[in-house]
């Protein structure tokens, strides 16, 4: 029995495209854009790349394996700000390449799990959210990518807020999104 095949295919399709999307969007940009933020306590595109790398290393697949192993203890907490020390001194091009390689390896490992529909319904314990399923974890992985792609696009757009002048009123990407901010998470999701 295959796991919600269309859902798994959709998840993998998004996950597989994220590295190329990030490279196309960020590679070769001026440093001022790479390090731009939306304001106090928000992340730059550079920061987001480090966060995504950390997630590839210690979040998504380790938690999937945790669920598949039948572990009953909660997942290890995920440090959503580890990139501030782990990425220090690295070039953006290095982060993009590291992310690409980690994602390639993780997608190969995911394919090697030969997940079944029953696996998609297996549960684990998130340290804050409680019971979650493997299917929810995998869907969140893909949506997390999209969330951060949107965050990067929004940050790059906001770097040009003054330059667009009166057209800003027509550009929804420049609108204030305070209702979506998460304290100390710089607008990131709580994956």
TrEMBL record:
Domain DinB-like: 15-152
Protein name: DinB-like domain-containing protein
UniProt source species: Geothrix oryzae
């Amino acid at each position: 029995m295959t796991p919600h095949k269309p859902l798994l295919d959709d998840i993998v399709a998004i996950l597989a495209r994220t590295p190329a999307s990030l490279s196309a969007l960020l590679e070769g940009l001026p440093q001022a854009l790479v390090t731009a933020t939306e304001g106090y306590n928000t992340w730059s595109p550079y920061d987001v790349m480090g966060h995504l790398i950390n997630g590839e290393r210690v979040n998504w697949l380790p938690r999937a394996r945790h669920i598949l192993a039948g572990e009953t203890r909660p997942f290890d907490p995920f440090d959503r700000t580890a990139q501030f020390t782990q990425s220090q001194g690295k070039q953006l091009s290095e982060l993009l390449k590291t992310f690409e390689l980690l994602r390639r390896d993780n997608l190969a490992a995911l394919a090697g799990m030969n997940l079944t529909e029953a696996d998609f319904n297996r549960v684990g314990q998130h340290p804050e959210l409680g019971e979650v399923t493997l299917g929810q974890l995998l869907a969140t992985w893909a949506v997390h990518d999209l969330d951060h792609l949107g965050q990067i696009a929004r940050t790059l757009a906001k770097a040009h807020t003054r330059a667009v002048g009166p057209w800003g009123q027509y550009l929804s990407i420049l609108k204030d999104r305070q209702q979506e901010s998460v304290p100390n998470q710089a607008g990131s999701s709580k994956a």
